[in-house]
Structures are given as structure tokens and as C-alpha cells.
Sequence to fold (656 residues):
Amino acid sequence: MDPSSFSNADKIATTNFQLDVTVDFDKSSISGTNTLTFQVLFDGVTEIVLDYQGLDISLCEVMGQDGKFNQVETDTHFDNNLGSAIKLYLTDSNQQIKLIYNLEVITGQSVVARITYATNKDSQAINWLTEEQTTTKKLKYLFTQCEPIHCRSVAPLQDTPSIKTTYSANVRVKDPYVVKMSAEETDPTKNTDGTTTYHFNQAIKIPSYLLAMAVGNIQYQKIGDRTGVISEPGENALDKYVVELKDLETLLDETEKWLTKYIWGKYTILILPASFPFGGMENPLLTFASPTIIVGDGSQVYVATHEIAHSWTGNDVTCRDWSNMWLNEGFTVFEERKVSEILHKDEPDFALLEAQLGNVDLWVDIMNYGVDNSYSSLYPQLNGHSPDDSFSELPYEKGFQFLTYLESLMKTKDDFQDFIRAYILNHQQQSITYLELKAFFESYVTTKYGAATAQGIFAKIDWDSWINKAGKNPKEWNIDFTTDSQRKFEKLADDYIDTGARPANYKDYVDTKDPQLKVIFLNRLTARQNELTSSLMSLIDSDLNCTWDKNPEIGQRWLPLAITMKYEYAYNGDDSGAHYYISWQGRMKYINPIYQQLVRYGRRDLAYKWFKQYQNFYHPLAIAGLKKIIFASATEEENLMLQRAEKAVNLGLIKL
Ligand SMILES: [Zn+2]
Fold:
């Protein structure tokens, strides 16, 4: 049913779960119970299988007909990539299948199970920050990141997007910590022991990966009728974020106008401490976002548009498994760019530039995987690997391109907008695969245009090539994202390289309000890096100040190029731009390329040193990725060197 989950949700499926837990910052652990309600889908099912990872499970119980919980026998299975499975036997030891604690396990029947557990240090989802790692440095902080398969390390459950459940939570924590979750909140209860219990309820069914929790010194600030921001208080955080996100209500209104009614009630963005490994995470009611989207010039606020659009595609209509992830991401990118186009009326190229840049990033990933690799397709075959391994631009940009292609086959763009609205309304609260999308598209087009016209359209669509192959460049599908402004900025880069001197119009770069054009310039430099020299890099940097640009999208391109070109000013030493860049934020998209290039270009020593300096700051997922980069490609000799260095650091012989 879902190759990334051990659960038997096809036989007995969770309909609701309730967390009753305590957050203990001294032990860095969340402990308590998860009480799950299941519906039996298959007569005589003999066990419930749950996913878990990084948890110590101490007791498993099933409720009998008398309403009392009885401990049940269990079995566990461990897997390196996907975590563990625990089986709760619904049979007694004599294998009496039909009546267990007087409970009949027949189709339609409810079963309630309660698991007592505590999270341990191996939990992949929970990031525990020390006071020093936060902005206000007053209290510790924790946040979760459950997509794709890490909810199993917050609580034992059927961790698969193929089923959707409601959930509620009672979370107890020491005062004055504040808890937020991806659910409606009711008034907290003050306890007599210096703790407070926060209460949450999510009445709309969601897949497990949308469970989210943040605990820390955090506050809410309203922006519009339905919108608000949560973060640590103060002028370096909440005050600044509220200013940059002042148009949040407009973003929500415009997205709703383009799509269908917003079903979730409120919409809040929680801006996390800078170690959050992603740009944003679309937890319902409560998007989590990296502070790297707050650049000061509003240029990264499109991430908010993206997360808002997920309220329809992803959170309401959900992919059934991680091979179909493009149904979440491709649709959301497509919608995000439609809304961006409306919001950037004065910049007619805005959405096209996004698509153009997305295509470059897409092909970098395709080249990295190899064109024949299934990860380079819209349908990665995971074969038991973690879906984190196949996480790339593919579901986003290839998905967007496929939808752009389908749109191009319709009589008008409005027809395709109508199709998307109908697709959402027809699959509300469902988990689907691309086969359902295909069937719905075909029936929609047939009804709209008649069978003959529809057949003509279907004959053009090579689904197999689009879904299962890396495929072609967009131009070969007759979709073109190029623009005049793009060509102008590529020429600026060409002029630097061809003349080796400062072009007369270099100020165009400095003066542009559109950072996408700067990225186009840098992509061109990267594409022609064989013709660059370190001294030309130095000239460009003194003209355009690339090393210290506050927009992280610039550093993401410029700094790895600087390492490749051995332009040492940008990276050599702890006062360099690259060192600052990897130290103030831990977003994987930004830090990985720096470490990768250091390793590739003979500075594994620097990569190792910086990693050791910031490994307490980065998120566990980022650490796992960096370990692969820094250690996996090492030669035997380098590995020995690293092991010796690690030993020396542990013994206190090397100070970082
Ligand atoms: Zn997304």
C-alpha cells in the first residue's frame, strides 16, 4: 500500500489519535501515551502494525469491550532505512482470533489501542535547541519536522499519507514555555506544579506527516482577519517578521480566489530558529518557515505563497505515497506561480523567471542522479530506501512543467484553472495517486470538449515518458520560459567572461529590484566556470558584492563557485562570507552545496572543522546529510585522518 510504512493500514486503519504527553527539556524527551482509534477494514485481522523510530516503547494496550485497557503481546522489527515496526497482537497466546478481550475484530468495528512511550535522542523528527541556538537565548526550544516519514519518531502510529486521521493533543510543559501545534487550540490549563497543559484538536482529517509541534519562548501576532505570525518575540524576530509578512492576508485572499474556498479557518506562519532545515513546511493552520525567507526586501515571501497553496494540494488532496509526491509539490508550485503572477502585476516576467530558475535547479538534480535513474523521474522507485533520499527538485519543477504542458493542450488557460478547481473539489480529504489524476483529467476533458477533441488531446500526452523518465527539456515539449530580462542578465555575465573586464552596464545588477535576475547572472557564470579565473571572480565581487549579499539565494550560487575557482577571499577562514553563511542558518538547500564543494575541491579539512563547530546547531536531518557529504566520499586515508581528528576533538586536543 505504501512502501515507506510497515503499517497494515489497508486492514485496520487509524481514524483518530490522541497524544497525552509531557515535554521535558532537561531530558530532551517527549513522553506519555498515544491513544489510537482504528477502524477494522478486513475481517479477522490479527494484529495492528505501527511505525516508530527513536522511541522507547514501554507498554502496549488494547481496550476490551468493558472499556478497560489490557496489555497485549508485541513483536518488533528493525529496518535501517525506515525505522522500526511494532506489532500489537489482537489474538491471545492461544491464537483465539475471533474474540480478544471480548472484542470482535470484524469489518467496521472500532478498536482502541494505547501506547506508552518516550522519545529518545535518536528521534529524527525532533530538534532540541539550547538557549544559545535560539534568537532570544532565554529558553530552550523544540520543533518537529515530520515529512516525509518522521512522524513515527514523535509517536508510534501508522505513518503513511495513504490514510488520514483527526487528532487531539494535551501537552504538558514547564512554565513559561508555550506550545503550538498544527491544530485548533483551546485555553490551556494551569497546573499546580508549575506546569501548563496546552490543548489541541485537529477536526479535519490529515495525513500523519502534517503533525507538527513547536515549544519555546514564542508569541502570536495577528496580521489580518485570518492570518498571523508566531515566533520568538522582539525586534530581531517577531517585530521584523510581521513587517515583512504584512501582506499575508492578501496572499491568502488571492490564492483562495484562484482556487476554491479555504477550508482550514485560520492561517498562521511560525518562523523558526535558523536551524530549520527547509524553507517551509506546510503544516495545516501553522506553516513552519525558515527565517531565511525574511531577507528584508520581501523577495523570498513567495515561500509563503507556496505554503498557503499547499492548504489545497498536499493538505486537502494528498499523495498516497512518496513516489507520488509530485501531486503535492507540482500542483503547489503551479498554483504558487499563478498567484505570484497576479501579485507581481508590475513584473510581467516574475513567474516565467521562477520557472526558468526552477528548470536550471531541476537539471542540476537530474544530472546528479543521472538521466536514467528513477529518482530523475516524477515517480521515484524507492525500493525500501527512505523517501528523504529521493527528495529533490523533481516533484516540484518536473511536476510544474507537466501541469504547464497539460495547460498548453487546453483551449484556454481558464479551462485548466477550472480543471484544477474541480480536481480539488472532487478529491477533498482523499489520498490519491497520479492514476486518479489521469482518470479525472480524462473524464473532465471529455465532458468539457466532447470525445473527439478529447481524444486528440490525449493522443499528444505521453504519460509514461512524463511520469517514469527524466524526460526532455521543456523546449522540446514546446513550453518556453525564456524572457528578455533573462537574456540581458546572461549577456552581462557573458560580457564579464568574454572581455575579462567590467561591462559598462554592470550597475544593472546592482540596481535591479529582482533578485531572480541576479541568480540568472550567477547561473550563467557557473555554466561557463571553465572560462572563469580567480582574478575575474575578484573583480565581479568588488563590483557586485556577491560574497556578502544578504539574500541567501545569492550565496547558494556564488559561494560554491568561489570554492571551485579557488577565490579564497570568499571562503578561506572563519571571517569569510562562506563561514558566516553556514553559521547563521542551517537550511539544507543552502549549506549542503558549500560543504559539497569544499570536499570536492580539496578542503575537506575546512568542511570538517565547520561541521564540528555547528553540528550542535544544525537539525538532525541536516547532520545526517552533511555526514554523508563529508565522510562517505572520503578515501581510506582521509577517513583515518578524520577519525583521528574526531578523536582529538573528543579528547579536547583540538579546539574548534
Ligand atoms: Zn511544497
